[in-house]
Amino acid sequence: MILPIGTLVNALAIILGSICGLLLHNRFPDRIRIIVFQGLGLCVLVIGLRMAFKAEDMLLVIFSVLLGGISGELMRLDRRLDTMGDRLKGLVRSKNERFTEGLVTASLIFCIGAMAIVGSFDEAIRGDRTLLYTKSVLDAFASIALAASYGLGVLFSFLAVLIYQGLLTLFAGYLQDYLSPLVISQLTGAGGVLILGIGITLLDLKSIKLANLLPALVFVVLLTMLKGWASGLLGF
């Protein structure tokens, strides 16, 4: 079994980037912090758009987002994640009011996307960590900007990356049979929609309950697999 070295490097990059951002936090005048936040929001919008356009069946993505939003709202995922974030905040005795917001926002940005999935598969199956190392560099720079704006919560997003990508690497042999290139493209598209929501929130255009949309990532996988199964069964 291959150890998730790429994921460990990714987590370390987020920690180092967050520390840099925290050191810069109090040295940034408000006007600099605001423009950095706005610039990050615009970049996140572009990333979300690029991801969303990779979906091969946008109709399934739309259904997935709608079903995911309804499911997440019924399960009140936003409150559950906030509770977890607040508990972690209490454990580290942070007084940062945006701790939980930063933790959830950074975790979504770092975990959603094809690089996390494909990179983990490449490491486990081919022993190639290039994609995860590249992602580590990108995440390090993103965590600097995020930590400078949100504070300490961003640093602890490394836990989400460690668990998510680590499990993908460890179970890649099993998951690769289910996460075909088509499923990954659809998953990337749905993830792109959520990333767009992050960009909109960062720009203060609209506050979106992104945590309640997370089930969309499950629905898009299930619907894509169901459609593939139905197409094979019916021969179209």
TrEMBL record:
This is DUF554 domain-containing protein. Coiled coil: none annotated. The chain crosses the membrane at residues 6-25, 32-53, 59-77, 98-118, 182-203, 210-230. Keywords: Membrane, Transmembrane, Transmembrane helix. Pfam families: DUF554 (PF04474). The keyword Amino-acid biosynthesis does not apply. InterPro entries: DUF554.
